[in-house]
Amino acid sequence: MRCPVPRRRRPRRAGPLRSVAVTGVSEGRLASLHRQRNALAAKFTAAYDRPFWRDRGLSGLSECEGVLGSTWPQGEGVLSALVPPQRFGVLLGAPAHLRERELLGEVARLYGDEAYRPLATHLRMWGTDPWTRGYVTQWTPGDVMAVGPRHGTHEPPFYVCGSDQWVAGYMEGAVRTGRDTAEEVLRRG
Length: 189
What we know:
Blueprint: H1 27-35, E1 37-38, E2 42-47, E3 62-63, E4 70-75, E5 78-83, H2 85-93, H3 96-111, E6 120-124, E7 137-138, H4 143-147, H5 167-188
Antiparallel strand pairs: 1-7, 2-5, 2-6, 3-4, 4-5
């Protein structure tokens, strides 16, 4: 007698909160979560045998004007780049087989022709990936302060974290620091 082989169940997709019903958390927490809008973006990473950008003294964040929005060293010999929401459609418009070369061209304009010779590259299309359906958070005026007080709070069994969701806490801290500094300056005259 043969035992049937169980079929592997495919994991259920859970995209951003716009596509998931959440219950069991406070109204304040739920309102905070719904203000965090995942914007469509992509990430491009290129690995090299050495960090050649250091030879030019370019080891920090670089802002770009093409399809890439910014690049930064992710690790020894690894450069990462973000395709921001306002440029994601332009990337989608490029034929898939030409995207890597175009993105490497932008990296080369910043760091030199050595950028055309990576050991490996990876392009993650977060904006259209069915598992993420977004990446960076789109903030409008007032959102950070509305989310900030709830940022990092935990209402079991539900907790949200994500790459740019943490920005809310940092920005909330920056806003508070700025306000406290202004108050102190005004107090001291």
